[in-house]
Amino acid sequence: xxxxxxxxxxxxxxxxxxxxxxxxxxxxxxxxxxxxxxxxxxxxxxxxxxxxxxxxxxxxxxxxxxxxxxxxxxxxxxxxxxxxxxxxxxxxxxxxxxxxxxxxxxxxxxxxxxxxxxxxxxxxxxxxxxxxxxxxxxxxxxxxxxxxxxxxxxxxxxxxxxx
Amino acid sequence: xxxxxxxxxxxxxxxxxxxxxxxxxxxxxxxxxxxxxxxxxxxxxxxxxxxxxxxxxxxxxxxxxxxxxxxxxxxxxxxxxxxxxxxxxxxxxxxxxxxxxxxxxxxxxxxxxxxxxxxxxxxxxxxxxxxxxxxxxxxxxxxxxxxxxxxx
Lengths: 163, 152
Fold this sequence. Notes:
Structural class of chain B: mainly alpha
Radius of gyration of chain A: 21 Å
Low-confidence stretches of chain B: none
Oligomer: heterodimer
Number of helices of chain B: 6
Order of helices and strands of chain B: HHHHEHEEH
Shape of chain A: extended
Shape of chain B: extended
Structural class of chain A: mainly alpha
Helix content of chain A: over 70%
Strand order of the largest sheet of chain B: 2-3
Mean pLDDT of chain A: 88
Number of domains of chain B: 2
Mean pLDDT of chain B: 90
Number of strands of chain B: 3
Radius of gyration of chain B: 20 Å
């Protein structure tokens, strides 16, 4: 019964959050991060406003933790459809039904090509000052530090290979 | 607090034991493990401990660990960083693209899509299977709804 009392405000939150996200997406031209964070804050405030005079208010913190999990899932879902590597291979078949291996490499990501995705990720790492980028790629001090953390995290989670 | 730490520690130990027992420990297997772990812990929790905070913590922890694993396992940026760290010296972009990226990432994904029945080989060409076309339609609708012009 208590679980239902936690899940109920979270379900309400999810509905308000996604509605607000779409409203922001279609009606306002905020930055992409703001388009998600602002609806998240607003939806939590609205949920709190509705339940503040009820018995559910003592469970709001638990509900908020579930709301955070919903936020992570939603953001990952958006990231997946925007930057998914494997997904983009499938969408490369939008214009042509049949592609040879070389054509697929050229047509990848709306004709940007497979090399584009590598350069895109490298540029992002360069902007974050993780790597030095010219004709060669070199890890910066921050990059070395982060790589150690990544390798350590992969060891902790027993990840042996790359997918 | 101790309960949460024991929970995390037990999760990691069990994960390690499973990873050395199972031959190829992929993301899909890890996903199944997380779901089973979540169900067992919450069954015990709700039947005996009835700790609601542990239940909500378990939800956030499971979601977080799944996405962390996914990032560390599949991310191209992570792969680049680990590769550069292992090489210690600077790496030429073109040679990295040819030897590491094209062969070990791009072609591997095509193989995964072919093995899972999304792509079919027809002579030298690749075509989308019925399942692949269904997913393509879903992705196109998603792109339309979320105003995404191109992915990748």
